[in-house]
Amino acid sequence: MSGKGRSPHKKKYRRTKRTYKHPNPLFEKWLKEWQDEAERRHSNMKYNFQRARKSLKLFPLPLYSGKDCKVLAHFGDKICQLIDQRLEEYQEENGPVNWDEFHQVQEEPQVKKRGRPRKNTSNSLDGSTETESRLSGTSASLQVQEKKGKSPGGKRGRALTCRRVNTRR
Fold it and tell me: Domains in the chain and their CATH numbers?
């Protein structure tokens, strides 16, 4: 074997996709509380908190502070400042935050995507294509027409077009 090939003894590794079930549950909980509070006070801030929660839900990575939230849409200085203050209060009450406890990781091996199966248009002995013979038992059948002019490949000549025709009446 040449030096370029793989040795048969090496183990193949697949890339694993790391996803989070719920990447920022703590921040989302606080935003929901603030949204409910604003709703009780009939404040229009409820819409801002609602938009911020939605963009936080759509963000797939974990965030660790209010400053990190600044990159998201609908997170202004005020909301980021509120998150930082609430995070400090939380750390005073409960000690340092164990982020691994909040960020639930799912590791999935990446699945190889398969392409669409090719259609076999070879003719059988009776002259009908495979698709026609498959559909002949159903209520629909294919009608093949010849057209003169340009074919789909761009060359002049005869082109075949297939059209499905309902036979049920």
Answer: 16-109 (1.10.150.110), 130-166 (no CATH)
